[in-house]
Each structure stands twice: as C-alpha cells, then as structure tokens.
Amino acid sequence: MRNIEHLSVLILSTYSFAKPRHGGQVRLANIVKSYEAMGWLVSSVAVCESNSSASVGADLGPHDFYFPNEAPYDLVNGKKIPFAKDYLSGRYAASEGVGFKRLCKNLPSRIDVIQVEQPWMWPAACAIRQLPQYANALLVYSSHNIEAPLKRAILDSYQVADADDFVREIEQLERAICAQADLCLAVTSADLEVLKSYGATEVILAKNGIAPWFALPERVDYWRARLPSAPWLLYVASAHPPNFTGFTDCVGEALGAIPPDSRLVVAGSVGPHLQAVLEKTRWGKLNTSRLLVLGEVSDLDLAAIKHLAHAFLLPIEQGGGSNIKTAEALFSGAYVIATPAALRGFEDLMSLPEVFTARSPQEFQAAIQAVLCQPASPTHNVKPALGSLRFGLQWSQCLSHMPKAVQVLMAKRQAS
Asked: Is 142 within 8 Å of 174 (Cβ atoms)?
C-alpha cells in the first residue's frame, strides 16, 4: 500500500467551499481539513449553479465551474422543475458533451479515492472511474441527508406539481449509490440505517460538528451596543427553504412570547425570507416589533453575536441529516430551544439542563418565556471539558476517523 503521505483524494460537489457559508460548504471544508491533517493530497471540483451562494467568481476554487443555466441543461425530462439545480449540475458534469470534458480537464494525474458530497455528482464519479488511469480508485459517498424525502418536502411546500418522477429518480440514484459505493458516510445513526436498507455494506458515522470560535472583545463591544440589553434569542440560518417555510408551524404565527424589550435576532441569509413569512400573518406588526434581522455577517461578527446570545432558537421541522447550527448552539453552552428534528444526530445532548425540546408552538412559546426570564446559562461561553459531550462536537472529534476508515478499506482491497 502507498504511504499515507502520497494518497490522493478527489472531492466532487455541486458547490464550492472556497469561502464556506452554508452548512454543506462548512462540512465539506472540514472534510478536506481532516484528509489534509492525515497527509492526504486533496483536489476538488465543484460544478455550481450560477445563481448559487458560490456564484461570485472570487469564491470559486481553482477547478470549480458553472453549469449552463439554459435549455436543455436546466430541464428535467423536458420540464422546468424548481429546486433541481443540484441534480442538474451533476447531470451536466456527467454528460458526454462539454460537461464531462470540462470536468476531466481539472482532474489530477492520479486519484486513489473519489469522494462525492451528496448524490448529485455520483454519475460523474462513475464516469471518471471508467477512465483507465482511474480504474482502481475507491468510490466514497458522503451523504449529508436522505435527499429524496427532503426534495419531496420542499416541492410540496411550494405546491410544485408533476414532480413525482423527479423525486423517484433521486431515490433511485441514492439506492444505486449505496449498492455501488465502496464506503458510505452518514451524518446520523438514523441516516446510517437508511443507507444500509438501500444496500450499503460499508457505512460509517461521520457526524456534523463545529469549529470553536473566539469572540474578539472589540466586536463584542460593538454588538453589545446594537443588540437588546434584555435577554434575547438568536436564530442563525441560510436561505434554504425549510429554514423559513416551516417556522410558524414550529413557533406559531406570533412572537408574542418575546417581551417588548427583547428580540428574536436573525443572522444569515434566511432573514428577509423569514421576515416576509412573519409579516404575512395576522400578527405582522407585532412580529416586526419583536424581530431584528441582521442579514449575513462576517465570521468575526457572528462569533461576537453568538457570545452575547442568551438563547438559540432552532425551529427546524423537516429535512434529513443533522444541522451544523444545532452543533454550534449546543457547543455555546447557552440555552437552546429546539424541535426534536433540529436535534437529530445530537440526541445524546438532549438531556443537558440548558436544552429545551419543543414539540408544538405552545411548547415553543412556553420555553421562550421561561428562558428569557432566567439568568444566563452557567455553561454559556464556558470551555467544555475534555471528553465531555460538548467537547465531542468539534470537527476534529467528529471526522478524524474518516480518512482512517478509507485507508483501512484500501488496505483490505489490496490484501484481497
């Protein structure tokens, strides 16, 4: 077997991680770090949609590129279907025309492992392994969630008709991947069992985590002057539709449980979308008076905002996998008010005294009122002890075994 220092892994995705913003990009950036920490040579290619969060050219990696946002590349079986850009990016990358040729121009001379983030680029990975120089590469599938039911939920929430065939194609793709992959990675125990039921024989748990943050005193002072002096709630999320379409189902249509001198502070690109949802309710004026939308902020500013937050709100109702924002909230040691769905993958931390699980709008409202009346959590901004549940939330703890598992699998293949 080659020395670990000379092993090469190619990462394929439908979004760049040159400047990580959303959860998938953050996870991918840390997967790359885990390989590099073990001495692997890492190369990556992302085939991105032009209006995605990675659409600014400066944010693309050196080998990333866009797929054409025009017919026939933007059609699914001849139809325009919303929220299909990830699927279409992968199909373009595997196409016999310009897409696959462009992908191949960005490949390294040797590849020991091809790792696919989410299912979309899997056909391209299989096409790469058909090339003689890459015929012995291992195929690793990094599953962020079970995509078919998630896509179905998103399409249903927007009342998209005639999408049944599209959703079935996604499920068939996921099942085919599990049958073909040399190794599958799951983010939760529940997802791991689904991958096994789909036919995966080699599957390991590679949980989502966080990178510890440090709040600069000057940024803390800056934000303390701009945020409520009374205890307040923080909601951090991207503009991924489930982050705002189901908010009122979880929390209710009114933010009346928040006192007049407090606020629900919203950071991230979800802000304008959530504000629009809350303004459309019959409690729109009340909601506006209890809402403070910050938009996207820098990592340094977000660290300061998290440092000051009295409690984190996690109103996640649907989707698969686990949520990186949940890991951040739990790691902070502040109060956390979350749905059971938001705590997927972190069930072992549900018993922490600062964690409140809410299963209905009434329970959310009661938890919000209770938390905002309490002193700050004793564990807030306290560094977790070595070996504690919160300590184990760090990426270094969650992913360090992944390159080792791949190396063991390579050794088994060579031995056989």
From this structure: no
Question: Residue 174 class from Cβ within 10 Å (0-12 exposed, 13-18 middle, 19+ buried)?
Answer: buried
Alpha helix stretches (DSSP H) within 95-199:
98-104, 122-129, 147-157, 164-180, 189-197
Q: What is the CATH number of domain 4-209+395-415?
A: 3.40.50.2000
Q: Name the pTM for this structure.
A: 0.87
Distance of alpha carbon 270 from alpha carbon 279, whole angstroms:
14
User: Cα Rg for the chain, rounded, in angstroms?
Assistant: 22
Contact between 21 and 55 under an 8 Å Cβ cutoff? The reply is: no
User: Tell me, which fold does domain 217-393 have in CATH?
Assistant: Rossmann fold (3.40.50)
Contact between 220 and 308 under an 8 Å Cβ cutoff? The reply is yes
- Structure token digits, residue 300: 């340094």
Residue 173 CB neighbour total at 10 angstroms = 18
Q: Which element (helix H / strand E) includes 302?
A: helix 299-308
Rounded mean pLDDT, 173-185: 97
C-alpha 137/C-alpha 384 separation (Å) is 40
Q: Give the C-alpha separation, 395 to 145, whole Å.
A: 18
Lookup: tokens for 75? 């059609």
Check the CA dihedral 24-27-30-36 and report its sign. Answer: negative
Question: At a CB cut-off of 8 Å and minimum separation 6, what does 179 contact?
Answer: 198, 199, 200
List the domain boundaries for the chain. Answer: 4-209+395-415, 217-393
Q: pLDDT digits over 152-167, tens only? A: 988 988 899 889 999 9
pLDDT at 54 over 80: no
Least confident of 97-101, 110-114, 168-172, 405-409: 97-101
Burial of 164 (0-12, 13-18, 19+ CB in 10 A): exposed
